[in-house]
Design a protein that fits this description.
With 1066 residues, this protein is mostly beta strands. The chain is built from six helices and 81 strands. Among the domains are: 292 residues, Methylamine Dehydrogenase, Chain H (7 Propeller); 95 residues, Macroglobulin (MG2) domain (Immunoglobulin-like, Sandwich), CATH 2.60.40.1930; 95 residues, Immunoglobulin-like, CATH 2.60.40; 136 residues, Immunoglobulin-like, CATH 2.60.40.4130. The radius of gyration is 43 Å and the shape is extended.
Length: 1066
């Protein structure tokens, strides 16, 4: 950061113009601009990167082949680490996490920003990388399992609670000390930032996980997770001897209503916020720690929210486990970066000793009454921006400190420090340039560790402080080199980068890039270009005062320039790209400019590469996510063609055309370096050995014969510059299997032998045995597919598949063979469950079809069985359906029995059978009752039903519906009768054949007031007793209301008189 830059300026005695220490020209801390620069280009035009985008890109990259060509002088295309593994100041990239083996203090694990996890078994003297092949190198935290110190947990996603940081892919677990890893929880945590993982010391399957979305718990070893506290979690601690007690902090840096410190007394299931501590929108990031030897003592440090300045808000302490809290009035104020770097740790053996780290590191030895800055002494063992602190398990006076300068070790509680930063290639580089003639020299700009000069070894010299960015050598005099710091502040060296002087300051422009493009004209070595929103040019070797503005604003009005490309064959042709997604071109040396972004997706421009011999042919690489990352134009950008092919959906950060092979385009992306040699149809991973970390910059040098890549987390790497040759091909034929009468896809792949990538648009000829069967054209992956129907008349067995490519002017002919195995087709029967009633005839149906494509099998016999007995057979019709009528016996037992359909098989089809259920139900009686002399409502009137069959009888009951209908089931079947009685009507019996579903009707005679099935004087007496009554009267009798008009009148007497003396059926 800028404070470092000032230190360096004083140290090397330069007259370097430096802005305010902590804020950029727009009032934001420089770490924020660094994170914003990286993240916003990947999110634009949206606010956020899609969840899981980096993991999906990594998975897509793993499916691509590796380019297998050769480099200059026949060298293999393998990446070689080019440094730095140390610097002259013993600084390397930011360390976010530290874990020390609980019983072996010589074994240390650290997490390095975007450089993955590193392990030392000799207290930091040497280091081994453990995670180069993982999907994410973004380390949020490291945890050693208390049950087994060989089990390590890596929480991915950078831990700054800004939103602009890199989301992770989940949790990686290693059970062998970091040699191998398993990804866990990606469906929950992909895109999240994990800052703490605690393993319950009494239950290794219970983990508590702190993330920027809240606190999660698993009780089954990571198979599932439950969120128990929502918000931006910034800290998590467990009581050393009681795993049910947990403390957590929600610390959204902008302030949030949920911000505060929480306690759980039930293992994290529920949480309560401390109201006595600062909370809500007034505070930002919060960190806390508990003393292991005295867990009643906790310290909490609160940062201000970003809008209030992001300094340290306050430090609080409890000595009774949180029952009461005291603010420590002498706590350090910080420097306004608590959102970015904030840590608090309590000495595990002495609760009066604690450390607070922000930009600087502070220590108290008296329980917080006073604090002392302990940033070390001397430039070689101090670095600002503190992120992590861990104690030696055997001696708490020995501490490890992780900061923007790497890892430091102190044996006296931070008073002096020893850097442990040799042998780790973890520098984060924005951009670089290589010496035009010396393959061992370069100048590179790093994140928060200045600009570096490499001379002959992997130890780089830091010669320009702060954040370093682009650099550019003069091609004919490499003693002249330009470098820069933030906002297009350009410096010039005349001794190869040993010392610098100010050359240009673009920070006063309306908008200046965090990382400004800076290039040397490939045809006019004295000419340099730098971009803000404008393009500036110096034709006098970049000296101060020689720069002139040659363009207007070349952005949409909200962004800054991200790339400038000069055509190698014509310096009058200049292309620019911006981070708000526009491309401009000048064909007259910068006098006029034309917008050329119509037809391009609206995403940040990462790279532009111009064809070495044709300035009208240009390639553009786009950042962000959503597909379509590389585009080509052959008319100065007037129109564009998407040549992304099978390139993963990953941000493209830089492009170059291979100067040795102009048909070869090379892309640096967040997921690695990729190459295409066929115009973009097929892409391959370039070379082997490159870690999976973001690749931001490329340089090719034909003089030295190397291709270089700058990574944002794993330093600089190089390989021999690839060469090109005539495409040799091979045909790979897939073995296939099919069935008689079925259709099989015959597939073959046409590949380049150098990249193993597929070749599209070529015709392949297919034959079975000696008989041609057709041709197919290869798709974008080089795969040709021919659908072929195997004759049903063939015999089973094997046949040779022969596939040939005849070759053309660009590729040699080739052929290959495979095997087609033919077998009888598997058949299957579709049989549904059936229901039928006693005595009912039902059509049993089953469909016979092919198992592979469900096509009907016609003309085959299907046999039906009920409860193991054959009940009929039938041939399948044109739909494959066989139908057999089946009559259920009258005396069949009620309930389920097995229904089976069987096909015996034949020469073309294998046998098949299917079981289902035949359910036998009771006979259904459906009755219609006509009620004589009644005008009232029939709905709901009770019906008494008597069923007789031989000597068997059954009494049933039902209710009439509005139409006088009812339905009931009877267990009796055969010839019989059914009698019906409804309240004050006489019973009527009708004969019936009781089978299946029976419909019967009755016409009932009215007048049976007393319900004894005859009309007598007793009915007359009840009618007299109810005469004149209506519902509600004391003498009301509903059965006396014969006509249903809700009153007992002479009309009811008329009905009774008319039917007097009649008897109902028995």
């Amino acid at each position: 950061m800028k404070r470092l830059f000032l230190l360096f300026a004083c140290w090397i005695g330069l007259s370097v113009l430096v802005h305010a220490q902590e804020l950029d020209p727009w009032g934001m801390p420089s770490p924020w601009k660094r994170l914003e620069w990286f993240y916003s280009r990947r999110a634009f035009p949206n606010n956020d990167v899609p969840a899981g985008a980096w993991l999906r890109a990594y998975e897509q990259s793993q499916l691509l082949p590796v380019y297998q060509g050769e480099g200059l002088q026949g060298q293999a295309l393998a990446w070689e680490f080019f440094g730095p593994d140390s610097t002259n100041q013993n600084w390397l990239a930011r360390v976010n996490a530290i874990a020390v083996h609980p019983t072996d203090p010589n074994t240390i694990y650290i997490g390095v920003a975007k450089g993955g996890v590193w392990k030392s078994t000799n207290r930091g003297s040497t280091w081994t990388n453990l995670t180069d092949s993982l999907a994410a190198q973004y380390v949020g935290c490291l945890t050693i399992d208390p049950h087994d110190p060989n089990t390590i947990y890596l929480g991915t996603g950078e831990e700054y609670y800004a939103g602009n940081t890199l989301g992770g892919v989940g949790i990686y677990r290693s059970t062998d000390g970091g040699n191998s890893w398993t990804l866990i929880g990606s469906s929950v945590f992909s895109g999240r930032r994990i800052n703490e993982i605690i393993i319950d010391p009494t239950n290794r399957n219970k983990w508590i996980v702190s993330t920027d979305a809240g606190i999660y718990i698993t009780t089954n070893g990571g198979n599932s997770f439950t969120r128990t506290l929502s918000g931006v979690a910034s800290a998590l601690r467990m009581h050393p001897s009681n795993p049910n007690v947990l403390w957590a902090a929600l610390g959204a840096i902008w302030g949030s209503s949920t911000n505060g410190v929480y306690v759980s007394t039930n293992g994290g299931s529920t949480w309560t916020r401390y109201s006595a501590l600062p909370l809500g929108t007034g505070v930002g990031r919060i960190e806390l720690d508990v003393c292991r030897s005295n867990p009643s003592v906790l310290y909490v440090v609160f940062g201000q929210n970003v809008g209030s300045g992001a300094r340290i808000h306050s430090v609080w302490k409890t000595t009774n486990g949180g029952t009461s809290w005291t603010q420590l009035t002498s706590a350090p104020a910080g420097s306004g970066q608590s959102w970015y770097d904030l840590v608090i740790r309590v000495d595990p053996s002495n609760p009066n000793i604690a450390y607070v780290g922000e930009v600087e590191l502070y220590r108290t030895t008296d329980g917080g009454s006073s604090w002392t800055k302990v940033n070390g002494s001397g430039l070689s063992n101090a670095h600002v921006d503190q992120h992590a602190l861990e104690f030696d398990p055997t001696d708490s006076s020995k501490i490890y400190i992780g900061c923007d300068g790497g890892l430091f070790y102190s044996e006296n509680r931070g008073t002096t420090r020893t850097p442990l930063n040799s042998g780790r290639g973890t520098m984060e580089y924005y951009a670089f340039d290589v010496h035009p003639t010396n393959a061992n020299r370069l100048v590179a700009g790093s994140q928060d560790n200045g600009s570096h000069v490499r001379s002959t070894t992997n130890t780089y010299s830091i010669t320009l402080g702060g954040d370093g960015f682009w650099a550019a050598y003069k091609r004919t005099d490499p003693n002249i080199v330009l470098g820069e710091v933030y906002y297009a502040m350009v410096y010039r060296s005349t001794n190869g980068g040993s010392s610098w002087s100010s050359a240009f300051n673009g920070s006063g422009d309306p908008r200046s890039p965090w990382s400004a493009p800076l290039v040397n004209d490939p045809n006019n070595p004295s000419t340099f270009y730098v971009g803000t929103i404008y393009v500036y040019r110096s034709t006098s070797n970049g000296i101060a005062g020689s720069w002139s503005k040659i363009s207007n604003d070349l952005t949409r009005g909200s962004g800054t320039l991200s790339v400038i490309a000069i055509a190698p064959s014509n310096s009058n042709v200049i292309y620019t790209g911006s981070d708000d997604g526009v491309v401009y071109v000048s064909t007259d040396g910068g006098s006029t400019w034309n917008a050329r972004y119509s037809g391009l997706p609206t995403r940040s421009v990462g790279g532009i590469a111009v064809d070495p011999s044709n300035p009208a042919t240009v390639y553009v690489g786009l950042q962000g996510f959503g597909g379509g990352h590389v585009y080509k134009s052959t008319n100065y950008g007037s129109s564009w063609t998407n040549i992304s092919g099978n390139l993963p959906d990953t941000p493209v950060n830089f492009l170059i055309v291979n100067p040795l092979a102009p048909n070869m385009l090379i892309a640096a992306t967040d997921t690695g370096v990729f190459v295409t040699a066929d115009g973009g149809t097929n892409w391959a991973k370039l070379g082997v050995g490159l870690p999976s970390t973001p690749c931001l910059h490329l340089r090719a040098n034909t003089t030295t014969g190397y291709l270089y890549v700058g990574t944002y987390g794993r330093g600089i790497w190089r390989m021999p510059l690839p060469t090109a040759s005539f495409v040799t091909t091979r045909v790979l034929v897939d073995n296939a299997s099919g069935t008689l009468g079925g259709t099989v896809n015959l597939t073959a792949t046409l590949q380049r032998t150098d990249t193993l990538s597929g070749i599209s648009g070529k015709t392949l000829q297919f034959a079975l045995g000696n008989s041609p069967v057709g041709s197919a054209v290869t798709n974008s992956s080089g795969v040709a597919t021919l659908a072929y129907t195997i004759p049903e008349t063939w015999s089973t067995g094997s046949r040779v598949i022969s596939v040939s490519f005849e070759g053309d002017s660009n590729a040699n002919p080739s052929s290959g063979t495979g095997t087609l195995t033919v077998s009888r087709a598997a058949a299957e029967i579709v049989l549904n469950n059936f229901t039928a009633r006693r005595g009912q005839t039902v059509n049993l149906q089953a469909t016979l079809r092919r198992q592979d494509n469900a096509a009907p099998v016609v003309g085959r016999t299907v046999t039906f069985k009920v409860a193991g007995s054959v009940v009929g057979s039938a041939n399948t019709d044109g739909t494959g359906t066989a139908t057999v009528p089946y009559t259920v016996p009258i005396d069949a037992t009620l309930g389920n029995r097995v229904l089976r359909a069987e096909f015996a098989g034949d020469s073309a089809y294998m046998s098949a059978s299917k079981d289902a259920t035949l359910e036998v139900r009771k006979v259904l009686l459906q009755g219609s009752v006509s009620l004589g002399d009644y005008a009232g409502t029939v709905n709901g009137l009770p019906v008494q039903i008597g069923v007789a069959q031989g000597s068997n009888t059954e009494s049933l009951s039902a209710s009439l519906d509005n139409s006088g209908r009812f339905s009931v089931e009877t267990a009796l079947a055969g010839s019989g009768s059914v009698a019906v009685k409804v309240t004050h009507w006489l019973r009527q019996r009708v004969n019936a054949s009781l089978s299946g579903e029976v419909s019967l009707s009755w016409s009932l005679i009215n007048g049976d007031v007393d319900g004894d099935n005859e009309v007598t004087l007793f009915d007359f007496g009840q009618l007299v007793a109810a005469f004149g009554s209506v519902p509600g009267d004391a003498n009301w009798n509903v059965n006396a209301d014969l006509d249903g008009d809700e009153e007992v009148t002479l009309f009811d007497f008329g009905i009774l008189v008319r039917n007097f003396g009649l008897l109902g059926d028995e």
